[in-house]
Amino acid sequence: MKKAETWRVEVAYATPRRQEVVEITAPPGTTIEQAIRESGMLERFPEIDLAQHRVGIFGEVARLHDPVHDGDRIEIYRPLLADPKEVRRRRAKTASGRNKPDAGKKRD
């Protein structure tokens, strides 16, 4: 009798203070959502809402119904708190103010 094939899959989630990676075994055909649920990540981090959080495999955005493969690392991404373009714009504006010839001088 042939042993059923299973794959090793990692599920990862990180907060600013903590990162957790859980390895599970999953049969072929398992979806990303099924693997996340099987990992127990939703119980460890109740703030995860799969309707809101994006997911990916090795840094590439994926969908919950995409199948996993042996050796995959599923990542659950936290929502952005700030728009990266706006943050860069503010940083550039601040930096350009410091580079002006009379920047930093006291005005009377």
Give a description of the structure.
InterPro entries: Mopterin_synth/thiamin_S_b, RnfH, RnfH_sf. Residues 85-108 are annotated as: Disordered. This is UPF0125 protein A3A87_08830. The protein is of the alpha+beta class. It has a domain at 7-79: Roll (Ubiquitin-like (UB roll)), CATH 3.10.20. It has helices at residues 32-39, 41-44, 84-98; strands at 7-14, 19-26, 54-57, 60-62, 73-77. Strands 2-1-5-3-4 form a 5-stranded mixed sheet, with helices on one face. β3 and β4 form a beta hairpin.
Provide keyphrases for this structure:
alpha+beta; Ubiquitin-like (UB roll); 25% helix; elongated
Question: In brief, what are we looking at here?
Answer:
By secondary structure, the protein is of the alpha+beta class.
User: Taking strands numbered 1, 2, ... along the chain, how are they ordered across the largest sheet?
Assistant: 2-1-5-3-4
Order of helices and strands: EEHHEEEH
**Poorly predicted parts:** none
Structural class category = alpha+beta
The CATH first-level class of one domain comes to Alpha Beta
Envelope shape: elongated
Write the layout of secondary structure elements.
Elements: E1 7-14, E2 19-26, H1 32-39, H2 41-44, E3 54-57, E4 60-62, E5 73-77, H3 84-98
Parallel strand pairs: 1-5
Antiparallel strand pairs: 1-2, 3-4, 3-5
